[in-house]
Amino acid sequence: MMKNYTHINDIDNINSWIEEAKEIKANPLKNIELGKNKTLGLLFFNSSLRTRLSTQKAAINLGMNPIVMNVSDDAWGIEFEDGTVMNGKTAEHIKEAAAVISQYCDVIAVRAFPTLTDKEKDESEHVLNSFMKFASVPILSMESATGHPLQGLTDAITISENSTKKKPKIVLSWAPHIKALPHAVANSFVQTMQKMDVEFVIANPEGYNLNPAITKDTLIYNNQEAAFKDADFVYTKNWSSYKDYGKVLKTDVDWMITKDKIGLAKFMHCLPVRRNVVVEAAVLDSENSLVIQQANNRTFAAQLVLKRILENV
Ligand code: CP
């Protein structure tokens, strides 16, 4: 029984979830009655293209009514600290906000990125956990400070669809970026791969190891070429340093993904991606790129999760 979906560990059996997502993809309107007269509230504290549209699409496929708010731009500033004298920028406390939104919505979906300056605050998942604490309806993470579980599920589905081997080799590779980016997508990808029957390694420069509590005993290479040997899938993502929290230590192009580097391996990225910074345009434009299929699968991952939540509401 699933109430909330906020972490990859909410997936009890990755293989059965992948199979059910594929069934949904083959027949997306099969459960159109399930969400009838139910409302999904989508709250965005940060920008989005795929998550915003695919999660709405998933809700519509289930017969739900999605309502969307750009919280950071359009709502009153929300206070998350308890006991604060609210004489500053924030005008409404999460206790009231979450309780009120719960009266309008049967499920609340939240996107809230990390600060990347306050590690303790980010790891406390204060936005997501405050909604879980003060809302009276199920909570769906649309990417939080430390995880992007809808993306992780999507990636599992996409690898399964494209795998020609019983146990493919998957590499998660760091790639350069001009800005400090969160660890959420990489974290959830690592946690997803650890649940699957695959050979999984990570490639990142020194200083860029992800949280060791998440990578656990996954092999980490500081040499991209060595990691890419015999790879079937190269999943690329930039993230800022975890150790030197939120810092960009390296922007030079020597870790950019190129056709030469990945050879015949399939290329994956959660998008959005900066062409010729993170990855050579030729890779994105090649037949080996799965990024568009991956983005399509966001709908079916979200639909599976919403279906499971609705079956439990
Ligand atoms: N991959 C992903 O979450 O895309 P958006 O940021 O556009 O939602």
Write the CATH homologous superfamily of the largest domain. Answer: Aspartate/ornithine carbamoyltransferase
The main sheet comes to: 5 strands, parallel
Strand order of the largest sheet: 9-8-7-10-11
DSSP helix fraction: 25-40%
Q: DSSP strand (E) fraction?
A: 5-15%
Using only CA atoms, what is the Rg?
Answer: 19 Å
For the record, the CATH class of the largest domain is Alpha Beta
The CATH architecture term of the largest domain is 3-Layer(aba) Sandwich
Structural class: alpha/beta
Count the beta strands: 11
Integer tally of domains = 2
Brief synopsis:
The chain has helices at residues 14-26, 50-61, 71-74, 94-104, 119-123, 126-134, 149-162, 184-195, 212-215, 224-228, 259-262, 281-284, 291-310, and strands at 39-44, 65-70, 78-79, 92-93, 107-111, 139-141, 169-174, 199-203, 219-221, 233-237, 266-268. It is an alpha/beta fold.
